[in-house]
Amino acid sequence: MHYCSNNRPGSPALCSPPSGGWWGWTEVNSLAFATLAMAIGGLGTSLLLMVGIVVAVGLCRRLTRRQLRAHQRLYTFFLEMFSTFQICACTNELCMLGTVDPEPHTALTLTYGFSVLHGLTLTGSTCNPCGALQPMWGGGMSVGMAGLKITAQFVAAVLARMFMRFIWSLEMTEPHFGAFSQGCGNPMQTTEVQAFCIELLFSVVFQLTVLRVESVNPKYRVHLIALLITMLVYAGGNLTGAIFNPALAFSLHPNCFYEKFLSYSLVYWIAPSLGTILVAFIWDEILPRIS
Questions:
Q1: How far, CA to CA in Å, does 204 sit from each of 163, 201, 209, 222, 273?
Q2: From start to end of the chain, where are the E strands?
Q3: Tell me, what's the pLDDT at 106?
Q4: Cα separation, 215 vs 280, whole angstroms
Q5: Which CATH superfamily is domain 35-290 in?
Q6: How many helices and strands (H and E) does the chain possess?
């Protein structure tokens, strides 16, 4: 600690330099300001990138509605593909911002903000294979249509990963340095059994909430869903990533699926899908009998 001397009321404190002299003092402050500037600059560049993705996807969705509405299957496929691409690409970039201070507040704030943005801009799309399984189980969607949506979602997951790898290879900002060459990031920081249970539980909570708030005003519903996602990420993000979306998990961790396919498919594909089917069974079969 450096004590201040010769202070007058209402005047700035005049502090003595550290033992290294004014050169060391300036050097330390320059390093601190440089680090802060890099963090802010990196965050700003990433935000511009993600906003650009949202705008581009919005234009593609509008073009799809104008040109392909008469072709129902193509219309559904491309609308779902573009929407899932937005979520996967933005989430890939958000993962790159995990090193930005302060942690975890920055990441959680961005998670909430972009969850709201996705909810407002991607109306009519599920962007999650589990979101197609639930209505299919209840008879509200044909098997063929559900399969078409799930295919579009996984195509989008692959395209989003390829696109982000290209962006990262340009190294436009500090968090991108070295991201292109990263292998499996090992998102599972617990046992496979615990990870399976976490993703299963989070999928059940998420899908039940989505069904429960269907009657809520859309402008409030989007914030409720975003808040839930942020809470789940806070609760389990350090253990499994709290993804509960098979397509998104594949986009975020393709190398992990390649190296440990059985483990990762069980945790990130089977667990959330099983949770969704469980919710659909409870919602359609058990609750009506109780009420």
A1: 31, 5, 8, 18, 9
A2: 4-5, 14-15
A3: 82
A4: 17
A5: Glycerol uptake facilitator protein. (1.20.1080.10)
A6: 12, 2
